[in-house]
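User:
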Amino acid sequence: MIGAAATLALLASGVAAAQSLVTTLEYGLAPALPGVVLRQPVGPVTGGDLVDIAVGDCDGDGRPDLFTGSSTGDLLYFYRAPDDVLEPGQSMLPDATDLFAPPGLVRQVTPEACDWDGDGDTDLLAALDGRLYLFAMEEREGERRFGPPLLLTGAGGPQVVGPGWALCAVQADGDGVPDLLTAGPDGQVTLLRRTAREGAACLAAPEACPEIPAGRQRLRLGAGDWNGDGVPDLALSATDAAVEIRIGLPGADRVTWPVGEPVGGPGTPLPLGDTPRAADLSPRLADWNGDGRADLIVGDRRGLVHVLLRGEAATLAAAAPLLQRDAPIDVGRSAAGDLGDWDGDGDQDLVAAGEDGAVWLFVNDGRGREGYFRAGTVLRQGDALLANDAGWGRPRLTDWNGDGALDVLLAGGGGGVAVHLGSRTATVGPGVPVTAGGTPVQRDGISSVCPRDYNRDGKLDLFVGWMAGPGSAGEQPLVYLENVAGRGQATPLFTKAAQLDINTMPTGEELPLRPFAIEPTRWLSDGRWQFLVTGRAGVDLFLNRAPERLYPLLEAAPGETGHILPPVASCVAGNLDGQPGVLAGGQGLGLLCWYDQALWRELDALSSEGAGR
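Assistant: Predicted structure:
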């Protein structure tokens, strides 16, 4: 089956890590290899990485629907059903248009919903690649639908906004038609007035709004009547996850927004459910529940969208995520997970974490083989969330102390590994650092850990790797920790961490690697350990050239001229309700994708058939 790697290399060559949410949901993290994106029947809606949102009533039922844009070129429309659950997102971008650019680029789409043409219907604006497009609502044959995109231009031509700029429609000068507020990388808010009610050439030259201080990175803003005085107010947020409201004051020439009042208090990040660190918020003001008061709706860096409802005393209720049917499990950038029977009912449950470090549990209620799990909950450590404090959580499941219940090995940012004892509930014990020779197993970077009884002595060994993270000095080696605990001693004991030797060029051609995680697995049918090594360039298969009683000596498998998976944040060998395979986590998108091991066997068979012709 080793030849399958070469076959897949041809299929996966050129696969970009930053593929769109739409593509990933349809094909998985490796489009040439059909995988199963893990989902929930109903769960939090996700719009993809660095989501920007817009809200507007598109179907005429009097309630706002949702639009999302992402950093990977997605523009999605979510219909809001009568039960307030959103239907799966529909892509708004045509299949073939000059809106598309080569894959792999950061292509932030910023949507805005408003009645642009004054016909009483909600239209959609979208900024993409430094261009601004209008999708006007039309009625054809008794059906409401958005028309094809119209490129809007201004006094200086088609470049009316820059790539990734904020976009906000607001009636700023009292002429009864929406104008636009934008903000670029320097956080300077500018006004684009309408010069015409119809046509593509309709925007004046930009005017600065000096009353709103510049200097905030990734500034996002939304407009609405927050205080009910009929004058548009603004909600602003930047990378610090705080949101401020600026009350609009009518003036001789335009509305101004001179004073900002932080929501929740000065310098206070907006609490968004079970996440230790929300960031890069996209706020909008709209009456979500139809009570006549503007509510606060926000998207966050992970792609999730939350609503904070206004009360009678202008207080905000706790944030609640908007829910979607057939929702992909999204734990945020740099996703990692593991499978195991957490609740002891005989099937494989899922734990997962991402960039913010929070560890989520998704229980398998019998549909795991279909890729569906129950709605997730963040595991707790006493009264606190279970999270890797330095972010980039890398959870693994194993029975650390031999009591029959699975425990959590938590690696990630900070470079260490800690064990949290489990009890088959959503609460785990305090973290205890894993040590070797009395010293914590910790190095510079983002750690990954794999528990295995490698030498078949009935005791749990560990494999640990590190990926260079923010502020890291550089790449670190992969290491093996042999459990030397005595007979009858349940808790593992490690005395040293042995660096693994890796031969990446058995045939004289070096295989690009830069490894940061390693998984012993029975990939072939010879009864021996093979290794899946995850690196910056992708996931590769390695053989062990040493006897299994000795430290592993890794050598790239013959024919391994490519990667069995393209670049991913994580790759874990496991078993999903009786079927062996791998669980891969996305880099920019926080999705998790299951691949049956049989897929590579099928590729190998196709490769053999082709060679015999």
